[in-house]
Design goal:
With 498 residues, the chain is mainly alpha-helical. The chain has 2 domains: 181 residues, SecY subunit domain (Preprotein translocase SecY subunit, Orthogonal Bundle); 227 residues, SecY subunit domain (Preprotein translocase SecY subunit), CATH 1.10.3370. Helix content is 58%, strand content 9%. The chain contains 20 helices and 11 strands. Strands 4-3-11 form a 3-stranded antiparallel sheet. Strands 1-2 form a two-stranded antiparallel ribbon. Strands 5-6 form a two-stranded antiparallel sheet. Strand 9 and strand 10 form a beta hairpin. Helix 4 crosses helix 15. The chain is globular. The two termini are 35 Å apart.
């Protein structure tokens, strides 16, 4: 299938124009800060006609999707990521026939991705409202009256506001990508995670901000006095300590790499090295895996009142069961694949770790009651997340020009070759195949295990959030350094094409 039939529609989509000239560093910083300010403004503004939002169970979802349930960015960047996943899968499965080396076809693909993201903005906004995660005035069980006496009108108004909020993020992503530093998606994720870490740290130390029992704060334990006050205060600091450990591990891993020597064919004595980092695919696998799992949870919540009976049993309940109080996944096959664990900040670490060995009662259609130890849930979620990371990691390098064949062709076209071997792309590809696939798997396993470790230990910002933020900040630092160098030496930009 080709995408040319979408061109008449894509032509009418609003677009952020490419800059006529490369913006200097100070302009990029201004654009980036402006986008960040708009993001935080929408983060704290609630849509007109909406009342109480059911939070808590969406904390993980909010961090990964740069959203805040009940605000104008309830949907966050979910539609952008999901549209990318869908189209990349279609391209990888050869359902969509497209040559990304052709500028015209690439532009059409990007337009199709934007069109799908815009449609998903409205679709996901409607799911949030219809499922009650964001409740319009007049919602069943509340004492409020709908706007203008019409519940349907109130629903549509709230859906439109949530969709427009997500659309604003979509176009701010384009603005930051073309006029600012890095990408808007990365910026918004890092901003949300950083805010969660700061607010979590304040809550752990002082108890201000909620989400943590008073007995688990540092100030409370120090005020008690006695021999146990300092040890208990240190235990209360464990989430911050685990957060720092994960930050340091990811930062160290960013520097781990294998370097393949290269030489210019026409310039003897000149060359360089092609680095293949342990984080070769960066945090992309965990982004895609988390987005898939979290969107799956969101969609299943929309089916919580649906039923499909086969042989007298509700098949929907076999796959997912929703807790009516928390709106979280509480049963079904999907329960084993979701990061729904106890909150150590609320119950304390001693109670938290003891809960790993408690039993969870599940009721399955056709099967009946099943008692499952919580550690099995932890194990299945970790393994499933790692497997997804490996799948998406391999998929990503094959569809984005990072595979051995594509890299070999790029190096060959640049006039580079590996010293001691004849200049043949097949030879270079064979050498790269010894490193890239293995490092991709190892890196994907690493990010999956690290994200799971941080989630299980209660690290602030969640494991996936920390992983994303460290990678984002590392790349932003490199971008800042490069831009500063280009501003000092303008002619260098012409040489390297920066």
């Amino acid at each position: 299938m080709r995408l040319e039939f979408l061109k008449p529609i894509i032509r009418f989509l609003p677009e952020v124009k490419q800059p006529v000239r490369k913006p200097p560093l100070n302009e990029k910083v201004i654009w980036t800060l402006a986008a960040l300010i708009i993001f935080f403004v929408m983060y704290h503004v609630e849509p007109v006609g909406a009342i109480v939002s059911k939070g808590g169970q969406n904390d993980f979802l909010q961090l990964i999707l740069a959203s805040k349930v009940g605000s104008l960015i309830t949907v966050g960047i979910g539609p952008i990521i999901l549209a990318s996943i869908f189209l990349q899968l279609f391209v990888g499965a050869k359902i969509i026939d497209i040559d990304m080396k052709d500028p015209e076809q690439k532009k059409t693909f990007q337009g199709a991705q934007k069109l799908l993201a815009l449609l998903l903005c409205f679709f996901e906004s409607a799911m949030y409202v219809m499922s009650g995660n964001v409740m319009p005035m007049g919602f069943a069980g509340t004492s409020t009256l709908p706007l203008l006496g019409s519940f349907t009108f109130t629903q549509i108004l709230v859906v439109m506001q949530l969709a427009i909020g997500s659309i604003i993020l979509l176009y701010m992503d384009e603005i930051v990508s073309r006029y600012g530093l890095g990408s808007g998606i990365s910026l918004f994720i890092a901003a949300g995670v950083s805010l969660a870490v700061v607010m979590g740290t304040i809550a752990i130390i002082t108890g201000y901000g909620g989400g943590i029992a008073e007995q688990q704060t540092v100030f409370y334990n120090l005020a008690q006095g006695g021999a146990d006050s300092i040890p208990n205060a240190i235990i209360a600091l464990l989430p911050i300590i685990f957060t720092i450990i994960v930050f340091l591990v990811v930062t160290y891993a960013e520097g781990m790499k294998v370097e393949i020597p290269l030489a210019f064919e026409r310039a003897r004595g000149f060359g360089g090295r092609y680095p293949i980092k342990l984080m070769y695919v960066s945090n992309i696998p965990v982004i895609l895996a988390s987005a898939l799992l979290l969107n799956l949870q969101l969609w299943t919540r929309a089916l919580q009142n649906a039923s499909f009976y086969v042989g007298g049993a509700d098949v929907v309940k076999l796959f997912v069961q929703i807790d009516s109080a928390t709106q979280g996944v509480n049963g079904g096959i999907l329960y084993f694949l979701t990061p729904r664990f106890f909150n150590p900040l609320a119950v304390g670490y001693q109670t938290y770790f003891s809960m790993f060995f408690t039993n969870h009662v599940l009721n399955f259609p056709y099967i009946g009651t099943v008692i499952v130890p919580e550690w099995i849930h932890i194990f299945t979620y970790t393994i499933f997340l790692v497997i997804l990371c490996v799948i998406f990691g391999r998929f990503w390098i094959e569809t984005t020009g990072m595979g051995p064949r594509d890299v070999a062709a790029q190096l060959q076209n640049s006039g580079l070759q590996i010293p001691g071997f004849r200049r043949d792309p097949r030879v270079m590809e064979k050498i790269l195949e010894k490193y890239i696939p293995i490092i991709t798997i190892l890196g994907s396993v690493f990010v999956g295990l690290l994200a799971s470790f941080a989630d299980l230990t209660g690290a602030l910002g969640t494991g996936t959030g920390i992983l994303l933020t460290v990678g984002i900040l590392h790349r932003m630092y490199e971008d800042l350094t490069a831009q500063k160098m280009f501003d000092i030496y303008p002619d260098l930009r012409k040489i390297v094409g920066g």
